[in-house]
Amino acid sequence: MQECVSMTQELSEPRGKAGQSLCIMGAQELRINRTLKTSRVSSISLLPTELLEIIIVETVRASTGADDCSASCKPTSLCPRPRPELLLASVSRHWRAVTLGMALLWTEIRLFLGQSLDLLDLYLMRSQGQLLDIRFTGIHCNIRGRGSPTCEPEYLRISNIILSHIHVCRRLEVHVDFPFTQLLDRIGHTKAPMLEELVVYYPPNIPNSRLLLFTEGLPSLRSAELGNFSSISPDPFLSGNRLTALTLGGHWDAGLSPKNFSDLLSRLTSLTHLTLIGEPVDYVRASNHPVVEIPLLETLVLKPEANISRIYLPTVFRTIRAPMLRELVLDFDNVSSTRELQSLVDKLKHETPPFPSVCHLTLRSRSIIHGGWLALAHAFSGIRSLSVSRYITNQLMGFVSCSGRRDAFPNLCTLWFDDVQFEWLLLFQLLQIRKAVGLPVREVKMKGFKEHAQSVINGKLSEAYLAVHAAVLIGWT
């Protein structure tokens, strides 16, 4: 009995101490709340600096990404939205101190006609000597004939700003809808030793030779995106052993000559990624189409626009040699008529496969013309993974499941779908057929599958399927 009493006393002591601690903590919480109310300090100002820096970086990154998507291939408005870093710096004193201490937030210099020098100087001061990302975008409706915009002094002022800081520029983008030949000429004679990325889009439908010439060279250039140029001198790429990514855009009537295109690519000995948007090479008016070999090319992206010429795609496939090509992206979403693709289908169906080393094929299209899948199966029989857009997912599964086509793409082991909105029974049938013929698919990935599988019905459907086909991994991207 005495032992029980002593044990009860021992247990009551920690309870008393715990209760006392809770009382102390409650009093402290009450005191902090009173302090916040009396001093009018927001709770958000008490966030740890490390957490606040993450929030600021992600907020600016999300806002910048949205601006880049909205401005892709199109000039932006003369009334830009407020910069997120400026807004974040005005939340509170604590947020301002943290934001001003993050120099990388202030390295993105956005220029437009009418740009305030005070704002520019503010960004340059806060960037603390970090390499700059300069972007000159905007629209100007009043074009005076073939010359410069009506506010030529303002245009020259912005050009001088770019030139005065290009020596500490890491990325330069020029994308406006008026001629800027003087800027291109002056950039061509200015050293830019730190420039790694170059994006230049000349306005289309404006008569001009648009010769891009860099006599000083760009020793650090890694990536270049050039649009609407009818002539590009290979001289800027004398350091072609460093440039790895090139994007060309435009239309054939103002595009590069086949010889210029071939000479340019032949200089780029380290090129691994090539993207062709629209129809940047004029194969229509030229009779001589020289072949060019790109020995290290790993990724080729073809994204034709509406109303491309019928000879463009077959000629690209015939004139580019890429023995190390691993990934091919065919983006036909913007092609207005299937007739424009028929010549490519005929070539792929009957001629020697153009890129036998391709392992991953990405196909984006709203529909596949007659004979298209058969041509792709012949030309790219060695692919191991295939990615298709939402509009043609059911067509692909129907083709591969069709009797007589079940051995198409014999090495295919991974499927990528852009969406989960397709006939799931077709997928199950496809996987069963491929397994039965000894060509099993090992992995299926799709966008949005995580949310799709969280619903009760779809979750049970997936679980039931996985119970039968345990060897197939279904995931999401």
Automatic annotation (TrEMBL):
Q: InterPro entries annotated for this entry?
A: LRR_dom_sf (IPR032675)
| Name of the protein in question | F-box domain-containing protein
- Organism, by scientific name, is Rhizopogon vesiculosus
